[in-house]
Amino acid sequence: MGNLAISVRDLGKQYRIGGRQERHETFMAALTAAMSSPLRRLRRMGQPVPEEQIFWALRNISFELDRGEVLGIIGRNGAGKSTMLKLLSRITEPTEGRMEIHGRLGSLLEVGTGFHPELTGRENIFLNGTILGMKRREVSRKFDEIVEFSGIEQFLDTPVKRYSSGMYVRLAFAVAAHLEPEILVVDEVLAVGDLEFQKKCLGKMSEVAGEGRTILFVSHNMGAIKTLCSRAMLIHKGTAAASGPVEETVAAYLNLNSPIQEHGVISKDAHRIGTGDALLRRVELRDGHDQSTEQVMLGQRFKIAAMFEVQKPLEDAFIEIGISTLDGLRVATVQNIDEDRPGLNFKPGLNEVVVEIDATLLPREYVIDVIIGHLSGLIVDWVERTFQFTALNVAPGSPDHYRWGEVRGFVRPKSVWHGPNPGTLN
Amino acid sequence: MVDTQTRSAATIVIEPSRGLADFNLKEIWDYRDLMFFLAWRDINIRYKQTILGAAWAVVQPVMTMILFTIFFGRMAGVPSEGVPYPLFAFAALLPWQYFATTLGNAANSLVNNSNLLSKVYFPRLLIPLTSLFPPAVDFMIAFVVLIGLMFYYRQAPSVQVIWLPAFLILAMVTTLGAGLWFAAMNVKYRDVRHIVTVLVQFGMFVSPVAYPSRIVPMPWLNLYALNPMVGVIEGFRWALLGTGAAPLRLIAISSGAAVALFISGFYYFRYTEKTFADVI
After folding, report:
1. Closest approach of A6 to chain B, Cα-based (Å)
2. What topology does CATH give the domain A262-401?
3. Which of A15, A93, A110 sits opposite B274 (nearest CB)?
4. Residues of chain B contacting residue A127, judged by C-beta atoms under 8 Å apart
5. Maximum mean pLDDT: which of A48-62, A237-251, A336-350, B49-63
6. Smallest Cα–Cα separation from B117: which of B33, B48, B38?
7. Can you tell me the ipTM of this complex?
8. Does residue B41 belong to the interface with chain A, where contact is any CB pair within 8 Å?
């Protein structure tokens, strides 16, 4: 078996969807159907399932992973990442293909699987540890280490239902972090917990990776993927859309995640998050003369106009406009409710909101993200990378310019300079 | 830190299974620690946050025994094979209660542990198998009450009592067989739990709990014994109270039915288990 940890060939998982009339939620319904139309059912048996009822959550996935490699798996929600982890963890069976796993595999698809609220921290460490595949004496041996990592010594004999969510996650992760499989499959579990603890967990994981353990890691945290992984795979619509060096794969993901919209018009089936009661339909960048543009002049004010198609009356809404770099780093955020301004009310139909921004962006390419939501925090529509524009290093008709080839930083705040004045050191 | 044995042994090949996957008994054994903690969790939870705690294990069979004694023993004059009626009823209530509680738990076991099924791998059989143990604690507590009753009625057990473990195993095989069927069906059809409730209520009257099986007329008795609990209960009475000759015929038929129930339940479970995580 050499140095190979995992080998996957032509892996596929198919689900049946739809066919409503054929699915029976209750046994009685199934029984009645079987009794009332035995002939029809007999005839249908052995016939292939109609094409439109088949959904391939994952297909044609092949890869090999050597011992000690850390593979990052990225992709949109619903792309098939979780299905792949479930197949590798043997939670569900593949429909086609073959996987070979050389070594003890532990999976971590959720923090605190099987934690019982009535049991104490101590009891849950044992329960959760064995659920994750440890032996009883293994848990006993690492018990002190786990407790120390979690930092909840004084609550060890308190039922976990009295824990704060932070403590709960710490304890759960502490157990998980002490798993010692040769191959570790980790789903987006780091998305929980406070920042400091997240760092601790990432540290623990890179430690684990340093020990030569093979890891498969799903995350939306591109920073974590970049620091931890030696390779990455992008899954899109159930197939491997890209695979290889981390940087390239992450770039492919960012491009795919929200293809930058042409001319600011956003189709209804763009990648969105939210209730959809109002949909962002167009984003436009305008210069100081209200002319549509794709460039911002150095030091000049500009406007961003967002057009929403409102389906239902929307009251107390907030709008957030964000400016991000192409690799997804948010540089500036403005909201209509800044400085304690009230929420907006929308009537059904097309509504345009324009914000004038007085900030100097340093020269590079930027994209605009837009969120419309309710003051309660409910997201109505959230679209990222809606519109790409360039911040120029000059401003025609003005002597202002950015002199250097290398651009450091993102924003040039207004500044007033004094001096030089004579000074002393004391 | 990893055991060298597991390192060398572990190469797992995962492929779509054709028909029934090979059953790996050793795997169940490898997961015995998990089974222990799952059972321990259920026992723990059962007695935490209750007023009477372990007394519940006694209250239910004792109350049922008292009611049976009043209505069946006294008023209806049901024969009790020369044994005081309360003892006669209690010896039957013990396995029956175990069967009823365990079957209910087993039927809901997969659904109640759906978070485990969809997040970690372990042999799925472990879950219904685990349900056999927590009610066994109740059984043992109630058994102490039975010993007390036997003292009270000065009913010494005879040598036959050595056969009691065999009937206990028969009870477990029966319960697990039915439990496997219902647990697997419950994943897909959520009204199965109601069916189980009805079945258990109904089953108490087609099992010789309140009366001796002797009152069932002959041609029907063979059919009656197809209910595996008939053999279990009559076996319990015979082993504990020495009621007449060994009901060999009943026990043979019931054992056959229990084994058939178990094997069919096992195969149905194995057949459906690969879709549990997708359906649940």
Report:
1. 10
2. Coagulation Factor XIII; Chain A, domain 1 (2.70.50)
3. A93
4. 37-38, 41
5. A336-350
6. B38
7. 0.87
8. yes
Tens of pLDDT, residue by residue over B94-145, are 999 999 999 999 999 999 999 899 889 999 999 999 999 999 999 999 999 9
- pLDDT tens sequence across B15-27: 887 666 567 788 8
Q: Decide the pairing of beta strands A214-218 and A183-186.
A: parallel
Say whether A97 and B15 touch across the interface (CB within 8 A).
Answer: yes
Q: What is the pLDDT of residue B4?
A: 36
Q: Which CATH number fits domain A4-34+50-255: 3.40.462.20, 3.40.50.300, 3.40.1180.10, 3.90.1520.10?
A: 3.40.50.300
CA separation, residue A241 to residues A9, A77, A80, A85 (Å): 16, 15, 12, 17
Give residue limits of the domains in chain B: 23-279
Interchain proximity A91–B185, CB inside 8 Å: no
pTM of the model: 0.73
Phi/psi-derived region of residue B96, left when phi > 0, alpha when psi is between -120 and 50, beta in every other case: alpha
* A66 CB neighbour count, 10 Å cutoff: 15
**Is the Cα dihedral B198, B199, B203, B204 positive or negative?**
negative
* Chain A hits for B37, Cβ within 8 Å: 126-127, 130-131, 136
Cα(A402)–Cα(A362) distance, integer angstroms: 8
* Mean pLDDT, range A40-62, rounded to an integer: 71
Q: Residue A1: its pLDDT value, please?
A: 46
Q: What is the mean pLDDT of residues A11-33?
A: 68
Residue with tokens 């925090």: A377
